[in-house]
Amino acid sequence: MDATSGKDRSSSQKNQSVLSEYDAKAFLSSYGVPVVSEKSAQDIEEAVAAAKEIGFPVVLKGLGAELLHKTENRLVHLNLKTEEAVEAAAKAIAESAGDRLAAFLVQPQIDGNREFVAGLFNDETYGPVVMFGLGGIFTEALSDVTFRLAPITDADAAEMITELRSSAMLDAVRGETRVHRELLVQTLTGLARIAEEHADIREIDINPLLITSQGRPVAVDALVIKGDAAERKSSIEPVDPRAVGGLFYPRSVAFIGASSRFGKWGYNLLTNTISGGFEGDIYLVNPKGGTIAGRPVYPSIREIPGPVDVGVVTIPAVHVKKLIPEFKEKGIKSMLLIASGFSETGAEGTRLERALVDEARAAGIHIIGPNTMGICNPHINFYCTGTHVRPKPGATSVVAQSGNMGNQLLAFAELQGIGIRGFCGSGNEAMITIEDYLDAFEVDELTETVMLYIESVKNGRRFFESARRVGQKKPIVLLKGGQTQAGIKAASSHTGALASNNRVFNAVCRQAGIVKVEKPLDLLDLSAAFSSLPLPKGNRVAIMTWGGGWGVVAADLCEAYGLVVPELNSDIIEAIDGILPPYWSRSNPIDLVGESDLSIPTTVLEALMKWDGCDGVINLGIMGRRHMVSWLTGSVRLSDPTHTEDFLEKVSQTYEEFEKKYVDHIVSLMQTYHKPVFGVSMIKDETDPTVYTLANHRYKGLFFPTPEQAVKSLSKMYEYRRFLLREENRGETAVRTA
Questions:
Q1: Cα–Cα distance between 459 and 437 in angstroms, integer?
Q2: Is 593 helix (H, G, I), strand (E, B) or coil?
């Protein structure tokens, strides 16, 4: 099996040719790949002479266009120390290879205990991809590999190297010399240049890339396959970002297939739009006429008296194409196609979908969907979704290829107080794709954070380029479905999508700066964090806790997620000495030792924000104590009549006022010091939001239920910060070299 693509190299492909190993290495060497010195010999006598010239011991191999699995077919003989051994090995190779033998290849015997693999292949979705990983017999067994889309920079190549789980093998360990990483970088960037300059190169496999005792990587075996220039999947024509943005700002909406039947799509969408407070004109269309919800129903689109910006279609799939002439005649430019029964159902549905799109495009009509659960824009009270969820206006734009997933996310956002810029269930993306939405978010001034749930992409290269461009301006938080074999099967039946290699997709996310998460609620956590807090400048975390146990847990989580909990220096210790009693731990995490003085958390927090030894603060257990006080005062009312109601109310009110002032204080400190403050509430109930919004403030208070949510979110924000710095450095390098 080929380590780069997982396809059997013996399977012949039309119009493909394989370079001999000798020619392959000569080609790779011209692109800076360090290769072993070697000689080609036409017969046994020349092979012996070449071995004498190179110097014993040597390696002898058989050469031939069809000789791909040399080791398995006994066509490689190692550590040959005499002329006689070379002659015997040559005879054995000739016998095994038969007519397929074209020549012999003689190399010096190079010993090395570390083997890696490098390669290039053409992914059908994303195009040319560079690969690096652990090589030799472990390539497939351990599958420790990393990828980047070509072209790549030196910085990209260096990141690939450090991403390997086995990257420690590149250091000086157990008597081995440190590997010359610059030669590895040179190898990977050379492969990327080949992809740019040779569209006919289909695949390159360097395995092993042997590390010599001097720490130099050397390609001792190489495969180069040429063929016709790789064809990308047919891409869908891009949609103007202004047209996509206009879909979220209709002045009038027509419901084609409006229904009076409770629970039907034509009823749910209509009632949600009306009750959500949409101020534009609403028209209902159904051949039966009459009235629905007290509104007149028009038998056809042509009979609608006013102009229509968006037509919401819920009629059966087989009848949708007939609407295109009516849309064109009426001047309706946008269709929200709720109906299912298209590509998600199979080949016939795919043909139906393509025919619909062709007619719509010719008529100048844009289609969202089909198989979508709707759109919403809280900024104009436009809630046209199947689920009656109405999050508040905000700065997070959401697109979900699963409408159910999207509506669940909106429901969670509403509960947690996370504001939404706009939402779209993109459905099958027959015309408007995830790439179109990304392009629209890039130019939308109200969008500050992008949240995506996707199962596939239509145009991998465009997705990568759009995401990388958008990511330099605003964070993209993404959850991908279809990451397991079961998930891939479900994704195919759900959206008609074809899943691509998930490891390549993960590499695309890293390279484009996409913040990828693994769980649905992580999307909300990250969206809340990005929309509420300043980015951390580094990964150093100060932890302030009302109880020691939570601080220990948070510190352990920080280490697990790549964050650093630095020791306190003398200056910050001296500052806190003036706040806490003498028996405080003088270490990070900082335990507030259960002090009841409500001024202590605010004072310690301010000292930490001033401290230049940390890049962010996590505070645990300060918020939410009002619930404990409420329970306490409730018990006192029942058990101790000596305390007056006024006293008990005052106690509760004191803690409620403290928490309001504490949030104000946090937001003010973030405004001043531009460091993120993550909160973890001691106790939360259904009345407690995750995000606390203050009028006329850029930042917001953020309090999660668990330490893990806070630590993971801070870690992902730091990951995004590193991407921005990398892109900034890339731009400076480009300017210097221009």
A1: 13
A2: coil
- For residues 246 and 258, membership in a common domain is answered with yes
Domain boundary among 531, 548, 564: 531
495 and 563 within one domain: no
Any domain includes 730: no
**Encoding tokens for residue 135?**
């090589």
Q: Which residues of 478-493 are buried (b: 16+ CB within 10 A; e: fewer)?
A: bbbbbbeeebbebbbe
CA–CA–CA angle 135, 140, 141 (5° rounding): 100
Please check whether residue 44 is in contact with residue 90, taking contact to mean a CB–CB distance below 8 angstroms.
yes
Would you say the pTM of this structure is higher than 0.70? yes
The residue type at 40: S
Both tokens assigned to 410? 């909106």
Alpha helix stretches (DSSP H) within 458-501: 460-471, 485-495
Render pLDDT for 314-324 as a digit per residue (tens, 0 to 9): 999 999 999 99
Residues of the chain scoring pLDDT < 70: 1-15, 137-141, 230-234, 483-501, 594-595, 731-738
Quickly tell me which residue has 């009750």 as its tokens.
275
Same domain, residue pair 493 and 553: no
CATH of the domain at 163: 3.30.470.20
Q: Specify the amino acid at residue 713.
A: S
pLDDT of residue 87: 95
Amino acid in position 539: N
Alpha helices, H only, 597-644? 599-610, 625-639
Residues 123, 203: Cα–Cα separation, whole Å: 10
Do 394 and 377 lie in a common domain? yes
Count of residues in the chain = 738
Left (φ > 0), alpha (ψ -120 to 50) or beta: where does 267 sit?
Answer: alpha
CA 123 to chain centre: 18
Give every CB contact of residue 193 below 8 A, 6+ residues apart in sequence: 31, 151
pLDDT digits (tens, 9 = 90+) for 524-567: 999 999 999 999 999 999 999 987 788 999 999 999 999 999 99
Beta-ladder partners of 398: 423, 451
Give pLDDT, residue 501.
67
What would the pLDDT profile of 8-58 be if each residue is shown by its tens digit?
344 345 567 888 889 999 999 999 999 999 999 999 999 999 999 999 999
> How many whole angstroms separate alpha carbon 370 and alpha carbon 477?
24
Q: Which of 108, 128, 159 is the last residue of a domain?
A: 108
424 and 327 inside one domain: yes
Report residue 667 CA to chain centroid gap.
Answer: 29
How are strands ordered across the β-sheet holding 103-108?
39-41, 103-108, 58-63, 76-80
Residue 732 lies in a domain: no
Residue 151 within a domain = yes
Q: Tell me the per-residue pLDDT of 595-604, one tens digit each, with 9 for 90 and over.
A: 678 899 999 9
Do residue 527 and residue 583 come from a single domain? no
- Whether residue 471 is found in the same domain as residue 595: no
Q: Are residues 186 and 278 in the same domain?
A: no
Instruction: List the CATH number of the domain containing 487.
Output: 3.40.50.261
Range of the domain at 63: 37-108
The answer to the question of residue 315 being in a domain is yes
